[in-house]
Amino acid sequence: MEKSIKRYFPVFLGPTFLAFLIGFIVPFLMGIYLSLCDFRTVTDAKFIGLGNFVRAFQDGEFLHAFGFTALFTVTTLVLINVIAFAVALVLTREIRGTNLFRTVFFMPNLIGGIVLGYVWQLIFNGILSRYDLALKISARYGFWGLVILICWQQIGYMMIIYIAGLQSIPGDLNEAAEIDGANGWQRLWNVTIPNMMPSITICTFLTLTNGFKLFDQNLSLTAGEPMKQTEMLALNIYNTFYGRVGYQGVGQAKAVVFFILVVSLGLIQLKMTRSKEVQQ
Amino acid sequence: MKRKARGGWFATILFTVISIFYVAPLFIVLINSFKKKAFINLEPFKLPSEKTWVGLENFANAMEKYNFLESVLWTVVMTVGSVVVILVCTSMFAWYITRVKSRATKILYLLCVFSMVVPFQMVMFTLSLVTDRLRLGTPWGLVIIYLGFGAGLAVFMFCGFVKSIPIEIEEAAMIDGCSPLRTFFSVVLPIMKPTYISVGILETMWIWNDFLLPYLTLDLNKFSTIPITIQRMQGSYGRVDMGAIMASLVMAIIPIVVFYLSCQKYIIKGVAAGAVKG
After folding, report:
1. Which of the four pLDDT bands, split at 50, 70 and 90, describes residue A146?
2. Nearest CB neighbour to A259, from listed B9, B44, B122
3. How far is B173 from chain A (nearest CA, A)?
């Protein structure tokens, strides 16, 4: 069977492979090469070694964006996962209206980041203006504004994953623990959570990488204001490319650093939580 | 085992209140879309009164001044085109690389998985150069780019499913004289229907809302998408027309909510399936 399929490889592989080449492989390799070059357009690229990386790390705004992003990601990771898990625990019980609540909590996920940013800008400015304040005057407001927005958007998504996980735990496990005299709290820590580790792995991985890669919401809610203090890594890279002349090489170097950072953080996180998963 | 939760009614009341707060932001945008633009920033939380009510003027403004409907049209073209092409091409790709075992197919699979974790910023500058050079900066051209950039997740999910199909079914079809193409389209494709729905939904959610990729690659003099139009309204020189923005937000949100409510079951399943595989 394999042999006869093989002859058809241009039909089966051709279109996707070609698009993959154009849309991913070529830009990716070019990106790696250009991060080592000085250039404005591509035709004038000159190889200069690691100079762009040195300049990237000397850029105070880039380092600030890194700190801001890290703090933001840790905050949202903890908040989203704890709340989503708690909500999932409640909504898998026999309560009136769980389906309606699930529907409501999940809805913001389908709305795009740009739209959400402007929706919340209206809300936050409406509240803050009563005290003669505005969202874009302090980095603190910007930070918490973004945290609230992202929690509001992503809790529903993670909740769905946690609910799917909870429903796959065999009921007799909890029943057995109950007969053995374990109270609710003990059952949560010793039965439910160990069995939920695969879902927890996925959700922490998603919130971690989503947090680091956040762009649209950052652009639309604060656009980095005031004074680039709420600028996150992805937006900083974007602004380096398109906001400063002659910095394209530095921008590409930052992008490579960003790429390595996201991939390695993701891998470390997967390793850490995977090791805690139990076999059923 | 089903257990009646203690204090069930308390949880119901609590969650009802939270749900109301949850949808409030969207509701507030809706009521503001009917107000005169000068009043939107002044009193965003009040219902429109006789003095502030403008009816559908904001909607008309958004459509006339900012060509909002045109960007809706291009977003639909781009999303539908890309999702259909992604579904057909990547499922064929995934079937081939799962059924034909060789070093090349193994490498292709790993490349696809790898592309899923690469952040867009890594390729955004060079991708915009490539699309420019190949003149792909149209909604149709972007279909190719989305196929390339979105292939990772789709191939990954299809591969996961193909592995669970017993190979005997396909062998039987081929012994009966089906060509590989016919085997794929009349045997494999119908079995994979649930995966098509899941992948389709995940890719639709992504492409419909995507901002940066089309912003950097589309020829913005001729085309625009919903997120791009909204971003431009806010960033445009001169006065920001809050009324038109509110109306556009409403028009951007309504189709999504309708889509969501009508295929909610599939969407939630798709998300759960995507996550388990991811």
Report:
1. very high
2. B122
3. 10
The DSSP symbol for B212 reads H
- Estimate the crossing angle of helix B68-99 against helix B242-262, to 10 degrees: 40
The SS3 of residue B225 is coil
Which pLDDT score, from 0 to 100, does residue A72 have? 94
Phi, psi of B89, rounded to the nearest 5 degrees = -70, -45
- Which residues pair with residue B4 across a beta bridge? A94
Q: Scanning every residue of chain A, which has its alpha carbon at the shortest distance from the alpha carbon of B212?
A: A216
Dmax over CA atoms of chain B, in Å, equals 77
Q: How much is the pLDDT for A260?
A: 92
Inspect the interface and report whether the beta carbons of A216 and B227 lie closer than 8 Å: yes
Cα–Cα distances (Å) from B159 to A124, A160, A242, B51, B156, in that order, read 44, 23, 38, 60, 5
Decide if A207 contacts A161 (C-beta within 8 A).
no
| DSSP letters spanning B47-108 | PP-TTTB-TTHHHHHHHHHH-HHHHHHHHHHHHHHHHHHHHHHHHHHHHHHHHS-SHHHHHH
Rounded CA-CA distance A151/A79 in Å is 7
Is B266 within 8 Å of B202 (Cβ atoms)? no
Contact B93, B85 (CB under 8 A): no
- Whether residue B129 lies within 8 A of chain A, CB to CB, comes out as yes
Q: Min CA distance, A94 vs chain B (Å)?
A: 6
Identify the segments of chain B with pLDDT beneath 70.
1-7, 235-239, 274-278
With cut-offs at 50, 70 and 90, classify the pLDDT of residue A280: very low
